[in-house]
Amino acid sequence: MILSISNQKGGVGKTTTTLNLAVFLANKGKKVLIVDIDPQANLTSGIGFTRDRDKDTKYKTTYDLLINKVDPNSIIKPTRVEHLDILPSGIELAGAEVEMVNSMSRETILKRALDIIKDDYDYILIDCPPSLGLITINGHVASDKVLIPVQAEYFALEGLGQLINTIKLVKENLNSQLDIGGVVLTMFDTRTNLSKDIAAELQNFFGEKLFDTIVPRNIRLSEAPSHGLSIFEYDPESTGAKAYERLTEEIIKRFESA
Questions:
Q1: How distant, in Å, are the alpha carbons of 16, 144, 206 from that of 195?
Q2: Which domain holds residue 39?
Q3: Is 224 left (phi over 0), alpha (psi -120 to 50) or beta?
Q4: Computed from CA positions of residues 53, 57, 61, 67, in that sequence, does the dihedral angle turn out positive or negative?
Q5: How many domains does the chain have?
Q6: How many angstroms separate the CA atoms of 20 and 241, rounded?
């Protein structure tokens, strides 16, 4: 199962969701690969890889995958979490979209790369950049489903229509199997009526696509990446950790019983 975690709005918990789902899936014995195609490389640093800390300062990244067509097996790195590997990102990916423009079948570069290794994993999670550009399109084309994190704020609802339309266009023209795998409400504040109103709006619009699990606003979730740790490693008893564990169980039930 290949899932791209996508929302063109930044700061909605996209990378946090990718990282923690991956760790919880791995903890449940699933073989998992995380693919960082965001030039900010927050997923890469969030699992503990940075060129400042890592002895292998010249390691290849998803830039080499997309631009130089390097075999993904030579880029994949194991993480300290058992059953969890990563295709890391780096700042060089920032200019990749311009370089990809003249590539043949440029929308399918990532799909062709992941086709080589997808049978080695139970789940591949792709952390897309906060845009609807060519790199994100590559993520969608390579995926079976798109997971959409939505922050419990008014402006988070703006632009969702554009994202849904992009997914529809990819499905019609590039990946007929693509569908919205689910929508997860993040950064939920139980004290505000706004959060509850947005939850109701999402329920009305997405129906059963909306996951039952709601990820609360939780300071421990915000702190964990600065230590290069998942929430499971940083504070497994926190409300954020409990929420992502429930979300992981929902995802397994939804996709493996289908």
A1: 19, 30, 16
A2: 2-256
A3: alpha
A4: positive
A5: 1
A6: 8
Which residues sit opposite 182 in a β-bridge? 147
Among left, alpha and beta (phi > 0; psi -120 to 50; other), residue 158 is: beta
Q: What amino acid is encoded at 15 in this protein?
A: T
The helix (run of H) or strand (run of E) holding residue 144 is: none
The angle at the Cα of 171, spanning 165 to 173, to the nearest 5 degrees, equals: 100
Distance CA 148, CA 160 (A): 9
CATH at 27: 3.40.50.300
What is the phi/psi pair of residue 250, to 5°? -65, -45
Exposure string over 216-240, b if 16+ CB within 10 A, otherwise e: bbbeebeebbeebbbbbbbbeebbb
Q: Measured at the alpha carbon of residue 120, what is the angle toward residues 213 and 55, in degrees to the nearest 5?
A: 90
Distance CA 178, CA 100 (A): 22
- For residue 118, which amino acid is it? K
pLDDT tens-digit profile, the chain (258 residues): 999 999 988 878 899 999 999 999 999 999 999 999 999 999 998 888 765 545 555 678 999 999 999 999 999 999 989 999 999 998 888 888 888 887 778 999 999 999 999 999 999 999 999 988 999 999 999 999 999 999 877 777 777 888 999 999 999 999 999 999 999 998 877 777 777 888 888 888 888 999 999 998 888 888 888 888 888 888 898 998 999 999 999 999 998 875
